[in-house]
Structures are given as C-alpha cells and as structure tokens.
C-alpha cells in the first residue's frame, strides 16, 4: 500500500492497514466556526485512531475542501453568509487518496464516496432539524437523504450517520432497530424508523450491549448528578445486507471538543483502496518570469532560437502556415518548458501550536474529574487561541507591509486575498442531468457536457465561399505585430498550444520577422493553423448553488498567438464597423461604460417625471445571445460594411472551422464543432456582436417609432451589449416596438427569455394595469429592476440604490475587517485598502447618483462607521466625529468624492463629441408641463446647488478642464452652500 503523502510506510504499518477494522466516527461539535475547534477534532481523531470523522453543525459557509493539520475536511454549508447548520467529513491522511466523489447537497446532507475493495463506501453525513422546526423542514431533510441514496448502487456499502435529533427508543421491534437503544421513542423517532424501513437501513449503535454511558449521545444543559437528562439522538446506520460488517458501535463521553454531544464511533470491517489518478500534465508557469534571472534565460534562448529559424529559412513565405507555426512554436515553447516549471505549492502555515494542543488534552482529562479545572482550562484555551492567532496575524501583516514597501502590487493583492479568504479554492459543485439527477462519474459528466455544448452551438448553416476575384487587404507590418503583442494582456490562462504572450513580449524587434512572416502567410492564404482553431472551455458557476450545465458560464481558452493576430485584424476593421454602431449602444466600445448607460436612463426618466411624462420601459433579456449568433448572417452583415476581402476570409475560416473541447476536472472531452455564436475570449467578438445586434435594432426600429421625443429625436432604446431597454411614452408604442424587436431578433437567431424580460411603468401617479406580451405570453410588470448592477424603481427613487450600495460596501468591509482593524498594519496602508476594497464597491455608478439630505447623511454615517471600526472605537466611548477624523489624520471624503466625480463626469461628456446622445438627454427639450410646487431633486440640480451655478453656467464651465479643476479645489460641504432654485 502506497502512502498518500508519498512517504515510505513500514511493513508493519502496511500489514496493520490491511488487517484492522476501520474506525468511523460521527460527532455534533456545536460549531467548528470557533477558533481551534477543527484542530481539537483532529486531535481527538488521532488519539482514538479514527480514520474518518463525520461532523454535524459545523456552521461553516459554502462547500469545498480544506486541510487542518494532516486531516482533509470535505464540508457542505450555507451558500449565504449565515453561520448555521453545516456538515463535514474529516479524513485521515492515510485514507485521503481513497476519495472518489464529493456531493455537498445542502447544509444538512452531504455524500462522500470512497473506493473500497468491495466496491464503493458511501458515507452520508447528516444534521437533522431540531425539535423546534416544523414538519415540512423535517420532510425536506429526509428527501435530501433519499436523493443522495439514489446515487449508491445496491452492492455498495452505504452508511448514514450524524445527528438525527430523534429518539428511537429502547427495545427491539424489528430487524431495523436493535434492542440496545435508549429511552422512549418520540414522533421524530417514528419518522426515523420509517426511513430505515423504506431504505433497508439498520441502526448499528442499537445492536451492541454497552453501559448506558456508552449509549447516550447528548447531554442536556439541565443534566445534573441528581437529575440526569441524557438522550440517544445521534445514530450510525448501515444497509441491512452489510449489518454484520459493523463489529462495534458505542459513544466515547470522555472525548472532548466543548460540545454537549458525545462522540459516536463504529468499527467496520471494510478495506479501502487508493485510487490511481492520472498525473497532471506539467504546465508552464509564467509567474516565474518575475524572477529576473529566469526571465533573462528565457529571453536569451527564445531570441536565439528565432534567429536560427530565420537562418535556416524555416519562416520562408513559400512555406505552409502550419509548418511555419510549428517551427515558431517549438522555438518559443522549449525554453518555457525548460525554465518556467511551476513551483511546488507551499503548505499554509498554521497558527495552532503544541502548547494549545497540550492544554486541550489536559481539559479532556479534567472533564470527568474536576469541572472547575475544566472551565478554567476552557477559558485558557480560548485566550491562548486568540494570542496564537494574533501572532500569526502579525506575521501576515508584516509580509503585507514588506510587499507594500517594495511596491509589489501583484503579490500584495494576492496576499490580501489569500489572507482574507476571498479567493478560497477547491470549492465543490454538483452537476445534474436534464431530469435533475446528480451525476457522479466523470464519464457521465463528460457526456453531459458534450451533449450540452453540441446542443448549444448546433445550427443548420451553409458553407460560405468568399469571392476571390480581387483580394484586398494590405500586407501586415512588423510595427503592427509589435503593437498587437504589447497591447495583449499578460498573465492569462494558456490555450491548447501553451505558448504564452508573456514570452512573446520578450522577443526583440529584429526577431519579430518570423511572426510577421507567419501572420502575412495566414493573411494572404486564409489558412489558419489547426491549433489556433481549437479552444478549451472551462466552466465557472454563475451562482453559488449551480447544478445544471446552463447554470455554468463557459470560458474559452484559446491560443495567445491567435489573439495577437486577431488584434491586428481588429485594428484594421474597427473603425469601419464602429462608425455604423448607434449612439444608444454603450457596451464594448472605447470611451463608454455602464455608467453612461445608467446616466442616460436615470436622467431621461428624471426629466420625464419632472414634466409629468410617464415612461414605459421594457428590460429585455436574451437567451444566451452571444452563443446564438448565426455565422451565415454575421458574414452577410460584414460583407455590407466595406471590409477588405482578406479580413472577411479570416473571420469566415475562423468561425467555420473552429472546434472546442470542455475541461471536466482534469479530463478533456472529444472535439466538438462550434456552428454558431461568437467566440468567447476572442478580441473580435465584442465588435462582431455589436455590429450584429445593431443590424437587429436597425431593422426593428427603422421607422423611428415610439420612444421619448427629445428635441424632436426619438430616444427609444438604450443598450449595453445585449442588455437592452426599450422606452416609450405609452403602452401601445412599447408593444409595437417589442413586437418588431422580437421579429427581427428571431430572424437573426436570437430569442427573448420571457421569464427574465420585465417591464416597468415609471410614473408619479397610479395608472390602470396595462399588459405587455411576447408572442402571446404576458410579461411580468415590476416595481423595481436590477439593471447593470444597480437598482431602478418605478418611482425613480434614487435613495434605494444608495442604500443598497452602502450595504454592499459594508459587507465588503466585514470580509477584510481583521486587516482593516489590525494595528499591526500602518494606518496609511489600511486607508488605502479601505479605498481599494470598500469604497470602490460603494462608488459603483456614483456618477449617476442623485442625492438628497437623507442620502448625504447615510453616506456620512457609513464613512464614519468604517473609521470608528478601523480605530476600534465603540459608540459607548462617546468620541465625536471630529476626534475620530483627527485620529485618522484625514477629513470626510465620501461626499466630496461624490461631488467631484459627478462634476468630472459632466465635464467628460460635455467635452466629448462622441456623447451626442448624452448631450441630447441632458440638454434637449422634452415637451410637457411641470406640476405646481417645488421641483424634485434631480441629477443636474445637485450640481447647481453644490456649486451655486445655473445649468447654462455649468455647461459652459464643464467644457474647460481648468475651470473644472478650480471648482473641485473649491468644493464646499452642502451645509456651507447657500441652496438656490434655478
């Protein structure tokens, strides 16, 4: 038997592993969220020679895999931020290579499958609802157990263990319950007995005769020597056919972890078997280039290889592009494999020390002898844990300070994320088939993904032939190649060819001739190397509890050299296509962002409500718009855009010959032909999708119908990539526009997701219900909607979004609280971290905010809340805000930053000629009549009051950067500004 840790085991140990029974425990530990609790459990596992420990009530968040000392923990908890429930299984290092599958079904039920010589050992760890929970929750719990039981085969050894919160009672009634139970059965016990009958499970810890102290699993807080209140509510159940495999089962009340439950241990006759896993392919680690010596070695060897290629004529223009590429690839990748080998992952340093472990052992000894000593040791252990953790934190903070002093921002942010746990790895997810059944074996998962990808990208397309009467397209220059390489981002995941752009950037200009020759040969022949047409999909969940394939996002990994080549093509076709994209499209365009789309919508709605004009808005959601683009129609659109024939031919050959594989764990599926959709991760895709969607809306809205008239121009849609809002003055116009968009979209292969497509009527008054339909299906009317990450409402309430942003920023603060509040880090660094990780969350969309007095007070209160916690100042200390700011050595900045950003943004759009639609929305005339009385606070009114200027003066000042800078320098608080109406 080989050691999982690749350390030699003695012959005696090998024989022992073969002969002895395996000891499996289950324990409700009353929270492993407490510092040192997981180490305590591992300590007891080692002492009692337990190889597998099921744990109930961990109170850990999320699901995944972790390591404590030499034990591996598989855990399943809540997907939200609540530290409730949770189950886990802790595996000894001698058995960790027997694990086959892990299914974190819910915070109450998980499955761990281990390889055994008899087949599979299925361990189901559970934590049942307590007595105060209703019957529906109990029934849901048993349904979850039965869900994972379906994953087990009849010949498998299946065990259900954990805290069932049920009393099965004393006395044998049938084959499912032994006669050595404890107490009297209750209603939950009847439900447990029913479960055992239905699933042929035997409760093993009722089969063996022991003293009562080895039968009870829970001790009540009211338990006293003169008033014993102890029950048996934790159980170890096994399939009836393997009943005799359990040699013993009893509790160990002397085991101590600070819980009111006793450890239940069963000895089972089963031999586990190590799984032979395929060795991972050695990957190129571009992080090694941060080492100057390593970078020098790669630089020298790559350039020398390319020099030799040119001397041998391997990059001649007469050669086939495939041959030229293979020569260049060999010249680049050999030094990479030689010098850029990944380093072995260092084990994370643990804060636990031997002194605390010794105290835990002393506390266990005192548990049954001296309760006073037990309580004292418990306090001392908590204190020692805090002290040890504090020392460990100081060391980590010292490392962060050193990185900050060296201005190593890459490793600084990496260390912060590692330290705060915001990049926790080894997270586990479940994959189900179309019927909702969980898929465990890798072959079935591969088939599921292959079927999903084939269906997603299947299309009845016709092959396109490019007319070659007259080829157009200038020769690619070395300067174009150099610019494309420099503009490609470094540090990205490698494609199938494993050639990193990080190394291409080390090539000297004089040796770029080889790559330039390759690009020109591809450009003139249209033949793209086979590896460039391949891509690998990696799957990332869209939400925490993703289970089905369509709940995952497929990210495409492609050749870096192809990305460089396509950057050259992109630069050539960009302006020709960009000129045909309308002003209402803000996505994937230089100089535009989500803030422009949000600004256009918010200001337009505010101005309409100001003159009592209702706004009818439909928020369109497409079904996988990027994956449904028809290649034939995309090419037809491009042919009408005056592109060079060689550019079109490259795009045709790229899209009509591409194949993809899916990476499932470490296994790659068979190649799949991609027949529709734009290539994710490709530099051309955003531009191609924009021009494709532009054709849809040009056809749908060509008659300029509907919309809000601003200076006589209809503003009827606002788009950010595929996120679209249709805008109208009444429901009839909105229905007409929506029908036209649906028809045009279907012609181009796109369909609306009617479940996520919503509509809203923004008004100041109550109006009769009016319905909106898509192909006869009624859409849902909503009062609020999340658009581009912000909250918009039917009353144009600006405060609701600010409240949400404050709470999100507060959550971001809590995530890194231990660093922001650590006095071992300099105040300057902590303030920088506050701005980087907290205020950046708060400021999302800040340029589009409209503030009133209430919003300003909330922002100020949140800012002071962060400062007080960073200084560890309690509200009971009665310290004023002035004193807090003095200690922070700074002034209030959030409100000033909001004012500054709004003013800067006004200047930005007023000076930019490309922002015609924004100029129109903020300055144009909208017909209507204002109500009597004071006008509502608006985006522009904020600036007028803050800077005491009229709208006309603001627009004039915004054009000048100098005047904007002066106005920012003279920013005054709202209270110090005399508010005027304009």
TrEMBL record:
Q: What is this protein called?
A: Craniofacial development protein 2
Q: Which InterPro entries match?
A: DNA/RNA_pol_sf, Endo/exonu/phosph_ase_sf, Endo/exonuclease/phosphatase, RT_dom
Q: Which organism was this protein described from?
A: Cacopsylla melanoneura
**Which Pfam family is one of those matched by this entry?**
Exo_endo_phos_2
- A Gene Ontology molecular function term of the record: catalytic activity
The segment(s) forming the Reverse transcriptase domain are 521-792
* GO biological process: one example: DNA biosynthetic process
Instruction: List the lineage, top down.
Output: Eukaryota, Metazoa, Ecdysozoa, Arthropoda, Hexapoda
